[in-house]
Amino acid sequence: MQKAKAAEMTGSGISGRGASSNGHARPEVVEGTSLKIVSQVFSFETVGAPDFVDLTAVVSDFVAKSGVTAGQVLVHSKHTTAAIKINENEPLLLKDVAHFLDRAAPKDAYYLHNDFAIRTVNMHEDECPNGHAHCQHLILGTSEVVPVIGGELALGQFQRVFLIELDEPKTRQVVIQVMGL
């Protein structure tokens, strides 16, 4: 059965377009079991912007506790000014990313979103000028999905899962959802 599944995947183009195998990794096919979905909302305090909060240990622990051994985990920010990204936790690189974000959408630039004399939508009494954070979020995104293989995150050697604060220090909510067998 595994050979048939592997052949189907190759025939559908999954192993084409530059993909390669290391020779000993074979597709894992699990049959006759029920899909499990486990979700939880976690809160994190940020201390500045940008702030890079490494969530990898939290995500890994949640996957382990879920009992899922084959599937995927979704890490999702419930905010439009806080992103989720996978990258390396190297201090100089994180400074480079911060500089890149500032060049892409500088905090001191003019944003209609920040002009409270004309803006009338989605306003609340403690509204802050954060147009830059929304624009930076467009570059980074809201969610990441990581494969779960053998009950562990299938991350590369230096890959880490980050919550990236783009606005100001706040309590942020992150949904972690594991799906699999």
What does this structure look like?
The relative contact order is 0.30. The protein has 181 residues and is an alpha+beta fold. It has a single domain (34-110, 129-180), classed as Sandwich (Jelly Rolls). Residues 1-21 have low confidence and may be disordered. It is 25% helix and 30% strand. It has a five-stranded antiparallel beta sheet with strand order 1-8-3-5-6, covered by helices on one side. The chain is built from four helices and eight strands; from the N terminus they run H-E-E-H-E-E-H-H-E-E-E-E. The chain has helices at residues 2-11, 56-66, 91-104, 131-140; strands at residues 36-45, 51-54, 70-77, 82-88, 143-149, 152-153, 159-165, 171-180.
The CATH topology turns out to be: Jelly Rolls
Mean pLDDT: 87
The biggest sheet, with number of strands, parallel, antiparallel or mixed sense and barrel status, is: 5 strands, antiparallel
Strand order in space, largest sheet = 1-8-3-5-6
> Which ranges are low-confidence, i.e. pLDDT below 50, for 5 or more consecutive residues?
1-21
H/E series: HEEHEEHHEEEE
Outline of this structure?
With 181 residues, this protein is α+β, with helices and mostly antiparallel strands. The protein contains four helices and eight strands; from the N terminus they run αββαββααββββ. A five-stranded antiparallel sheet has the order 1-8-3-5-6, with helices on one face. A three-stranded antiparallel sheet has the order 2-7-4.
